[in-house]
Amino acid sequence: MNIEKVARIIIQKFPRDHSNKDPFYVLISTILSQRSRDENTEIATKNLFEKFKNPSELSKAKPEELYELIKPAGLYKQKSKRIIEIAKIIHEKYKDKVPASLNELLNLPGVGRKTANIVLYVSFGIPSLAVDTHVHRISNRLGWVKTKSPEETEFELMKLIPKELWGPLNGSMVEFGKKICKPIKPDCKNCPIKNFCNWEGKR
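The chain above was modelled as a monomer; its predicted structure follows.
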């Protein structure tokens, strides 16, 4: 299988644009997206940024002030506390500027590799491969990798896919995973890469 060719088809057929590339907006919306559906994340992010415009404003907030705003995204108590902690660090340590460094992003509370890589690519244009459950599952299903964790998948895919595809692949894989290559009952009949797929469960 030509992995690069298949990756390019997925990116072409399932493009995902990020209208707001502001680093703080992207960082906070990605944290809100954890264990949340896209539509609920969008509502929570919109609510939050209508009231708190920047790290400085959010750093002064109390968690309870965020509860109703971000409730649609779920885990609102835990996320409220985390978001305010991050805002304080960015305000005090980085003078309201989100750092464009993987290590510095990973040092922020609750920020893992997926979140950090999304910020680096979307906001700073730095080639970064964000691996979430969709990317991990589909890459294994297609036989690109045989890995047990998203982090393992990230490092294996970086060896297999050209750097210029790292960034776009995440968003496109998410769309592909929601619309076609679903966890249960994937729509193999309408899959644009069915001829390149050797998955034993192909329908």
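The first helix runs from residue 3 to 13.
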